[in-house]
């Protein structure tokens, strides 16, 4: 794959240089250039298709995304050349050529097996959830107006509208929601640590277990986002309860899949139980706070 990416990068350079200044390449040269570009791209796609699905769907998706970026980069470069005057090297052509180089260089950062791929996917999820938790913590600071960054606007109505503030009851409910969001962060952190420490990609079973973990962990971030959005005023307690229940269900599933997989030896079962209890504890408090709304 590294070899085909490198050849594609070189073909992009050749193509770009050929159309960087007059005179235009001859029809024969154009045909040869086109053929070389096409062969390079076909080689990239072929090597991607050689990667067996049994090596892991998470790994395969990352390799596919990198391959797609190279192909799309080359399409963009070709379009730019076709639509640019040949008097001089245009800024767009330079940017497009650099885009292909960048896409081709990515191959050195690709994971080499499914364990590395799943670690990378979990780390990305963790980063997004961390940001969401920090943003909500910042908004919930005592006395802070969550819409303080929105300027007064005639269409939005008077800024003193109570719908833009949290009541004391709202804050009690949201405190348990924050507990659930923090449990999401802790869950991803612990699962990532376990995958790095104990994850293996030596057998089909291990590879499949890692994929299952990545698939369910991918649901955490959207569920955290949905809960966070429903926490902004005016708060609808039932919508908050529904989104909290969705997130709790995803977290319980992640913990269950982790516990029954090879990444969770007996020494790791303590934190799985602890996080399960934390999810139940916060969800029970959310149910108590919203019981009167049912």
From TrEMBL:
Similarity remark: Belongs to the CCNDBP1 family.
Gene assigned in the entry: Ccndbp1
GO cellular component labels: cytoplasm; nucleus
InterPro entries (alphabetical): GCIP-like, GCIP-like_N, GCIP_C
Localization annotation: Cytoplasm; Nucleus
Keyword Transcription tagged: no
Domain Cyclin-D1-binding protein 1-like N-terminal residue range list: 1-140
Biological source species: Sclerurus mexicanus (tawny-throated leaftosser)
Keyword Nucleus: yes
Chief location category: cytoplasm
Keywords: Cell cycle, Cytoplasm, Nucleus
Pfam families: GCIP_C (PF20936), GCIP_N (PF13324)
Highest taxon in the source lineage: Eukaryota
Protein name: CCDB1 protein
Residues covered by the Cyclin-D1-binding protein 1-like C-terminal domain: 152-256
């Amino acid at each position: 794959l590294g070899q085909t990416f490198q050849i594609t990068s070189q073909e992009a350079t050749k193509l770009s240089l050929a159309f960087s200044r007059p005179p235009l390449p001859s029809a024969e040269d154009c045909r040869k250039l086109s053929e070389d570009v096409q062969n390079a791209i076909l080689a990239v796609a072929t090597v991607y298709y050689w990667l067996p699905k049994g090596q892991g769907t998470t790994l395969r998706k990352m390799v596919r995304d990198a391959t797609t970026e190279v192909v799309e980069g080359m399409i963009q470069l070709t379009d730019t050349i076709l639509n640019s005057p040949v008097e001089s090297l245009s800024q767009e052509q330079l940017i497009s050529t650099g885009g292909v180089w960048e896409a081709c260089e990515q191959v050195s950062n690709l994971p080499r097996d499914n364990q590395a791929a799943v670690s990378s996917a979990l780390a990305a999820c963790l980063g997004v959830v961390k940001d969401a938790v920090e943003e909500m913590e910042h908004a919930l600071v005592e006395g802070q107006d969550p819409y303080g960054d929105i300027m007064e606007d005639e269409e939005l109505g008077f800024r003193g509208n109570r719908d833009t503030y949290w009541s004391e009851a709202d804050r009690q409910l949201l405190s348990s929601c924050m507990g659930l969001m923090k449990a999401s962060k802790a869950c991803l952190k612990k699962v990532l640590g376990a995958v790095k420490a104990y994850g293996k990609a030596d057998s089909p079973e291990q590879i499949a277990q890692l994929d299952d973990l990545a698939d369910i962990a991918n649901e955490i971030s959207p569920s955290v986002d949905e809960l966070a959005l429903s926490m902004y005023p005016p708060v609808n307690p039932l919508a908050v309860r529904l989104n909290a229940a969705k997130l709790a269900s995803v977290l319980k599933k992640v913990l269950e899949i982790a516990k029954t997989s090879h990444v969770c030896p007996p020494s790791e079962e303590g934190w799985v139980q602890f996080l399960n209890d934390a999810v139940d504890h916060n969800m029970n408090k959310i149910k108590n706070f919203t019981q009167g709304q049912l």
